[in-house]
# Entry
Amino acid sequence: MKTAYIENISDYSGKEVKIRGWLYNKRTSGKLWFILVRDGTGIIQAVVSKADVDEDSFNMCDILTQESSLTIIGTVNPDRRAPGGYEIQAKKIEIIQIAKDYPITPKEHGTTFLMDHRHLWLRSTRQYAILRIRQEIIKACRNFLDERGFILLDTPIFTPAACEGTTTLFETDYFGSKVYLTQSGQLYNEACAMAFGKVYCFGPTFRAEKSKTRRHLTEFWMIEPEAAFFDLDDNMDLAEDMVIYVVQQVLKNKSKELKTIERDTTNLEKVSKPFPRITYDEAVKILHDKGVDFDWGNDFGGADETIISKHFEKPVIIHRFPSEMKAFYMKRDPENEKLSLGCDLFAPEGYGEIIGGGQREENLEIVEKRIKEFNLPRDAFEWYIDLRKYGTVPHSGFGMGIERVVSWICKLSHVRETIPFPRMLYRVTP
Ligand code: 4AD
Ligand code: MG
# Structure
């Protein structure tokens, strides 16, 4: 007899199978037990009739508790009323373990309680759907870049060079010397792009974010393409195409999960070419027109991002930020030194920034000067400076925060549900 996974149950219509899983719920009508079992791939109902099973199996239904582990042997029958179109007519039930007092019950629990039990909370239908959507998003990003000839090259986690400013570094001891956990793979990506042309890295990145917001984690996953000879416009085109592809793949392949979390997909369906592209100046004007007190030259705060993002139906790309607020590697606008060729992509529905990137400074003297101005240790950047010595070319790239994308696509109120085990200012457990 075949051991079947619930997601493939239609392949076994009319046949006898073995299902292994956990009890999700149960009810009885006296002569019948209806047992809901989940196996990690789906949920199915097993009907246990006194007439069809041995006495032990029938009596076991009585003592089965939520999350008890078990095996069910039975026949797969089509049933139009069943959620997946099939149910199991049970022949035998074997208990693996009876779970005692599973802490997460169908009643409402507070966020702290659920976060403390994150290792168990993952079993609930909603978390399950969100994390399956996360997987689809990652898969889509990678497929998109792979298909366009970008080479995946993994960049290091331990690094002596700060990429995104020195205020959010996690420092660690490396056999007596000081290194940091990476904030972004970008600098190494730039080296790889000069070797391979079009590259990307995908991995965990770390920032000691001291603010507690619905958008910030201290450990998050970023996918970062980088391409030689790309200018700012090429970069924005790539970001736009990637976001459209990701949304379409999720709509196509994860409609069931989107339904489970009750995501209204009307706005997602509108994600199509072209995205509005506005300058930083125009974004500031939107804020001023809405009566927000915002000084030119500042970075957008969470509330500003929400307002700008809600102003558009589609994702919006903002470019040409004040040079002062951007990292040392950003290329300045040749037409206006005060502006840099950075670009951010804001998701709609109030979600704000999901992508940050831009065109890099390729000139040797300017990069050397910036490293000095930013008080960065030249030693740690010597290899980066080499890239400008040996065949430097214009190049661009960006980083897309996976958790921010999951949060938007699933329309979540906080990034804590977008990753199996979130790391935040006040949480490193479980
Ligand atoms: O805008 P950021 O800081 O850009 C960079 O790190 C560039 N070096 C990337 C590049 O050009 N290769 O971060 C990029 C994205 C943000 O748009 C956001 O989606 C995500 O990373 N991000 C965070 N996500 C969750 N928690 C945080 N604390 C995040 N910080 C950035
Ligand atoms: Mg940014």
Remarks:
- The chain has a mean pLDDT of 96.
- The chain has two domains: 2-97, 118-418.
- The chain has 13 helices and 18 strands.
- Residues 163-164, 184, 186, 207, 209, 216-217, 220, 222, 224, 353-357, 397-399, 401, 403-404 surround 4AD (ligand 1) (CB under 6 Å).
